[in-house]
UniProtKB/TrEMBL annotation:
<dbReference type="GO" id="GO:0008201">
    <property type="term" value="F:heparin binding"/>
</dbReference>
<dbReference type="InterPro" id="IPR033906">
    <property type="entry name" value="Lipase_N"/>
</dbReference>
<protein>
    <submittedName>
        <fullName>Putative lipase member H-like</fullName>
    </submittedName>
</protein>
<dbReference type="InterPro" id="IPR016272">
    <property type="entry name" value="Lipase_LIPH"/>
</dbReference>
<comment type="function">
    <text>Hydrolyzes specifically phosphatidic acid (PA) to produce 2-acyl lysophosphatidic acid (LPA; a potent bioactive lipid mediator) and fatty acid. Does not hydrolyze other phospholipids, like phosphatidylserine (PS), phosphatidylcholine (PC) and phosphatidylethanolamine (PE) or triacylglycerol (TG).</text>
</comment>
<keyword id="KW-0732">Signal</keyword>
<dbReference type="GO" id="GO:0046872">
    <property type="term" value="F:metal ion binding"/>
</dbReference>
<feature type="binding site">
    <location>
        <position position="198"/>
    </location>
    <ligand>
        <name>Ca(2+)</name>
    </ligand>
</feature>
<feature type="signal peptide">
    <location>
        <begin position="1"/>
        <end position="20"/>
    </location>
</feature>
<feature type="domain" description="Lipase">
    <location>
        <begin position="38"/>
        <end position="328"/>
    </location>
</feature>
<comment type="similarity">
    <text>Belongs to the AB hydrolase superfamily. Lipase family.</text>
</comment>
<keyword id="KW-0964">Secreted</keyword>
<dbReference type="Pfam" id="PF00151">
    <property type="entry name" value="Lipase"/>
</dbReference>
<keyword id="KW-0479">Metal-binding</keyword>
<keyword id="KW-1015">Disulfide bond</keyword>
<dbReference type="GO" id="GO:0006654">
    <property type="term" value="P:phosphatidic acid biosynthetic process"/>
</dbReference>
<dbReference type="InterPro" id="IPR000734">
    <property type="entry name" value="TAG_lipase"/>
</dbReference>
Length: 451
């Protein structure tokens, strides 16, 4: 009898261990589901610092069964978008882990793959309202158990961005923050605010646009809207349809990768308030006086540092440029060029910064710049790396016209000013630039007396 009791105890312990090791995750579907079509079903999978890689499927109504779902902590909802093949997003686990490294939060993956997986995109769009109603009821249950709506952060990708907006509207804009990563455009463009995400859906709404000419939404939707590389073609993404499915989704998905870079603080990306991408590239939007000593807002997770000012401004449209791969951040300089030539000249410049074997490159070629005698031409250079201590600078000028004879640009002064470190402007005087010939020199600190 004693032996049986002993064995029974061991079996019970083994069962509990097996139960403790059971993990859940977003449900993987396939093309068969997409062809047949799926009916909406919402699964909520919880991750915390106690179970970073082992998700817990949470009941919509009984939260008492999940002691590690600590509602005194903030809660972050991750809401995916349209899934035409039913696959799990490749970035999902990274998203969960990086969020939990950054902040002690409850991460809830809103798995609405049953509803998002359908070859009929319009059916998935219809399901966004139902998904939002389901999620709203869950958050109201959380609230009854002591959760604060202001501590909720909803991160919606594509269609998930509009689901976040519908939930926020259902809760009268009381949730703390909505981050929208390239909100879906098709079927939402031109819709009234009640039928899409808008800035009234949360106490603070920040939006990133990366594919406004295809799958994304073009117009501003939040308190601050970031347009990466103008919001259209992202560096490093395929340019032709021969690249397969990545041609269609690369720009759209870049929004997630950029945001994750801000979560793990790979680098800091400053965004510049501006009315258009052209003005941004022309260097006409380098002033951020409205933000005081904080300067231009930082894109991504930490933009809440500028929340009070952004709420006062009501709507701010910003732009930034990136590299083609991680780390995506670029470093911005203002470049002022004054020439001696009697005649005006137009052309493009490539500038390189060198330090201890490292090279940073900026190509200023979005349009032909005009250079005039004794007149400063202001250029906006964005380097692919941040060189902390510049030892040498290389400059190459090109007129870009193969049919005209080559000429020389006689530079009276070139000044390079790091927009984060304005007091460390670097200069060089009296340079002769032969067209398409790189000239390298050692810069010196700028002094007005040198000119």
């Amino acid at each position: 009898m004693f032996l049986w009791q002993y064995l029974s105890s061991l079996l019970l312990i083994a069962v509990h261990i097996c139960e403790a090791q059971e993990c859940d995750q977003m449900k993987r579907l396939n093309l068969a589901h997409a062809f047949i079509g799926t009916s909406l079903r919402i699964r909520l999978v919880l991750y915390t610092r106690e179970n970073v890689t082992c998700g817990t499927l949470v009941s919509h109504t009984d939260l008492s069964a999940y002691p590690h779902f600590n509602l005194s902590r903030p809660t972050t909802f991750i809401i995916h978008g349209y899934r035409p093949t039913g696959s799990i997003p490749t970035w999902m686990q990274d998203f969960i882990e990086l969020m939990l490294v950054r902040i002690d939060t409850n991460v809830v993956v809103v798995d609405w793959n049953y509803g998002a997986t359908n070859l009929n995109y319009f059916k998935s769009v219809e399901n966004t309202q139902g998904a939002a109603d389901n999620l709203t009821a869950f958050i109201e249950t959380m609230q009854k158990h002591g959760a604060s709506l202001s501590s909720i952060h909803m991160i919606g990708i594509s269609l998930g961005a509009h689901i976040s907006g519908f939930v926020g509207a259902n809760l009268n804009g009381s949730i703390g923050r909505i981050t929208a990563l390239d909100p879906a455009g098709p079927q939402f463009t031109g819709s009234p605010p009640q039928d899409r995400l808008d800035s009234s859906d949360a106490q603070f709404v920040d939006v990133l646009h990366t594919d406004i000419d295809s799958l994304g939404y073009r117009e501003p939707l939040g308190h601050i809207d970031f347009y990466a590389n103008g919001g259209t073609d992202q560096p490093g993404c395929p340019k032709t349809i021969f690249s397969g499915s990545s041609y269609f989704k690369c720009d759209h998905q870049r929004s997630v990768l950029l945001f994750l870079g801000s979560v793990n603080q790979t680098c800091v990306i400053r965004a510049f308030p501006c009315s258009s991408y052209t003005d941004f590239l022309d260097g006409k939007c380098q002033s951020c006086d409205q933000f005081g000593a904080a300067g231009c807002p930082v894109f991504g997770y930490d933009v809440t540092r500028w929340k009070d000012t952004l709420l006062r401004l009501r709507q701010t449209k910003t732009f930034f440029s990136t590299n083609s791969k991680s780390p995506f951040c670029s470093t911005s300089y203002r470049v002022d060029v004054m020439i001696w030539n009697m005649n005006n000249h137009r052309g493009y410049m490539t500038i390189k910064l060198h330090s201890n074997g490292t090279e940073a490159v900026a190509t200023i070629d979005h349009k032909s710049s005009e250079f005039m005698k004794y007149t400063e031409t202001k250029l906006f250079a964005q380097f692919d790396k941040d060189i902390q201590s510049v030892e040498k600078v290389s400059v190459m000028f090109s007129a870009g016209d193969v049919f005209k004879p080559k000429f020389k640009l006689r530079v009276l002064r070139i000044r390079l000013t790091h927009l984060e470190l304005k007091e460390t402007a670097l200069c060089r005087y009296d340079i002769l630039l032969e067209e398409k010939t790189e000239v390298t020199f050692r810069p010196i600190p700028c002094e007005e007396s040198n000119f």
